[in-house]
Amino acid sequence: MRVIKEELGDNEDDEDDLIALKRNMQKAGMPPNVWKHAHRVEPQQPGYNSSRVYLDLLADLPWKKASEEIEMDLRATQKRLDSDHYGLVKVKQRIIEYLAVRKTWVSSIEAAQQ
Description:
- By secondary structure, this protein is an all-alpha fold.
- It has two domains: 2-60, no CATH class; 74-113.
- The chain has helices at residues 2-8, 14-28, 32-39, 48-60, 74-84, 89-113.
- The longest helix has 25 residues, at 89-113.
- The chain is elongated, with a radius of gyration of 23 Å.
């Protein structure tokens, strides 16, 4: 099998591939509950390729980075939605409700951190 892989130009071993993946996952700073899925992956398992692609995606996510929350003005948002989109009353109402809950949630987290 190794000779066939070499002739096809596929010299990479699956074990080396897994080592590189685990190194990338460590650099990403994943939480332990995500890490446990990486340790279960074996190259001999059916569906290895799809699991490998999924773990690559997880390794590329910015686990330790968070974006800054910007202050939301719900009245200005409502005016903007009304001026840009005719109708869609229920949709716009749901967007404003979502933003209001998010604003309250962010404020409570900030208060708890202080």
